[in-house]
Amino acid sequence: ELGIRGVGSLAALLGRLGRGFIMGKHVAQTYGSRRVAGKIFLVGALGVAVVTATQVFAESQTGTSPGLVTGSSAPSTVKCTKSPEVRLLVAPELQSVVSEALSAPSATKGCYAYVVTGSSARAAASKIRSGQAPDLWVPDSSTWLDAVNQPSAPAWTTGPSLTLSPVLVASPSKGKSALAAAPASWSEFINAKGEPQVANPDNDTASRLAFFTSRIDQRDAITRDTAARLIVLSRFAKDSVGVLLDQAAASPTAIRPFPVAEQRLATFDAEHPGVLTAMVPQAGTVVLDYPAVTNPNLSADRREAVANALEVLQSEGARTAYLRAGFRDTTGTKGPTVGGISAPSLTQVPMVSATERAA
Q1: Three-state secondary structure along 32-98?
Q2: N or C: which end of the chain has fewer CB within 10 A?
Q3: What is the overall mean pLDDT for the chain?
């Protein structure tokens, strides 16, 4: 199984934290649950004719298990030469938006066929490393490129960010673990504040980014007390944030605060209002940036089809769809309402470099 490259588990992460792997000065930039089931979509765009087909499949932590794809024929009046089937792997929470955008009658300028599959970043990275790379990959964070690049192969490089979702603290609204105020920083939350809960950073990107960010102001070697604290956290880490959200729905006052993406929390809040309170660390937070990453080994015809997809996925219509789905725009504004409160302005903490993450 592929974990975070150079990390692999929270225990390994603790060892790296002990070496003070995040160093240097970082400047903040200010900007104004349900468990998700995967789907596979076949989107054929023939001028203004569109062929779509769907069948739901379950996504596991290790990958996706697509169902059979069926579809109807294009109108006989539409003539098109055979085109390559372009494969996309996208974060499950973006899948329906991407599929709908690429199936719109006005989406394409030529003959393209897109297969859109929902996949966790971990599972997608595993496929790429095993030689089953998609033509276009949209993980939930650029940091997952750490898990696919190898010295002997062309580099996968981050592309344009399609949308954003900041990492928040989800605090129980009631109960002994409820936070009276937002933590000063992710460092305080992870290293000193109360009794937080986390999801396994091998599986959950929000917890992964919270751990990385918690080391920004911890430049010296990790202390014994902090190490002991992180070991305890690791023992009680859940497999995914979906498990934590399910527990919050079942026992609202028993859950402890945990990192979660804003979009995921907004979806949960719509179904379970008043259970969790969204908090932004006072020093700022990191974001899931949903980069569109093009396979570096594409043929010319596939590059053309991917370029068309990128144009569609950055169009005004797609940007509006991201906002409707609970994401923010690429400036970090216009986010979802959680708990009846409009999305606050953010101070975005830049993610540390790949070199620092791998140190």
Answers
A1: CCCCCCEEEEEEEEECCEEEEEEEEECEECCEECCCCCCCCCCCCCCCCCCCCEEEEEECHHHHHHH
A2: N
A3: 76
